[in-house]
Design a protein that fits this description.
homodimer; DNA-binding; Arc Repressor Mutant, subunit A; mainly alpha
Chain lengths: 164, 164
DNA sequence: AAGTTTAAATAAACAATTTAATTCCGTACG
DNA sequence: CGTACGGAATTAAATTGTTTATTTAAACTT
């Protein structure tokens, strides 16, 4: 009369003990999973000299160099000021470089440096390895299902994230 | 020779365009979903006067009052220093209170104040609502699947999180 | 052509998190 | 006893992340 674990109906005990769980538990669950992921990723990333959050910038620029801070922020799902500061640090660390646009004076373009380029491969591997570790024991289909559900969640949340 | 989008096999176009996705995309996907969730939750929580991350402490203490910082950190999947700081702020905000243990001088016990207790219900509703918003359009079964997969991920990551 | 509005980048302030290092208390051991 | 070890909490330093406000340049309106 205390734990409040599986005393809803104990319907059939079919799978695990997910009986009483519902959407109300979503926020804590995803928060915690992301925290773990971030910590593990961060530790691995440390060997490359960068922090969790910076990896996306490198990988995005590897796909398309010369993006603006605003574009990077948008694509990485982060607010502009966050990107500005992260770019600043990464520039100081020598991974990338800021250059004015030339035609539009408001724009800044971000380019990978030689150092940044050389790190791309390892970063990509680290991120992928972290994902594989997390997905251990899951089938490809389950992983795709998870990705699809996460995408749905984000799609649902997007309207609530629009800037006033 | 450039986009690397859906040119794996283009098997059958069965569902969506999840063709080329795999575990390698897991880390970014969960990171971004969690970021969105955190922002939305944080904005709603703001009306109660607290920030994302503090809600768990309130809810946990509502379930079991008088936990130590270490226990709270453990149960909320956070490191001890994080909890110390969060508790400090929440104490200053008047939501909780620190009391020495009495029998063991090393321990500190954390108790909800009257204000904290009064906020429990609203916090719980806010967190649940945020989850419901995120899960809009998903069936109960899909939500349970998602929770199960998230739990698996965290289980997989746990060993890598053990303190050296 | 001049003034207003929008858009992009940045600056400042507040929080969460982590790792590494400190302090304090209790217990075990010599 | 007194000293060494271990655990719990805290402090310090670094970074991402958000919100709010400021600057600067382009675009649009009279």
């Amino acid at each position: 009369m205390s734990k409040k674990k599986g005393d809803k109906k104990a319907k059939s005990g079919k799978k695990k003990d997910l009986e009483g769980l519902s959407a109300a538990d979503l926020a804590p669950a995803i928060t915690q999973a992301a925290r773990s992921m971030r910590t593990v990723l961060s530790r691995s990333l440390g060997e490359s000299g960068l922090y969790a959050g910076q990896d996306g910038v490198i990988l995005m620029l590897a796909e398309e160099d010369g993006l603006t801070p605003g574009q990077l922020a948008m694509r990485l799902g982060v607010k502009a000021p966050t990107m500005t500061r992260t770019i600043g640090r990464m520039e100081a660390q020598g991974f990338l470089e800021r250059r004015p646009d030339g035609t539009d004076g408001r724009l800044t373009k971000v380019h990978l440096t030689e150092t940044g380029l050389k790190s791309v491969e390892q970063i990509g591997r680290t991120v992928a390895d972290c994902g594989s570790l997390a997905a251990k024991g899951l089938s490809d289909k389950e992983v795709r299902t998870l990705l699809k559900l996460l995408k749905t969640i984000e799609h649902n949340l997007q309207p609530a994230l629009a800037d006033d």
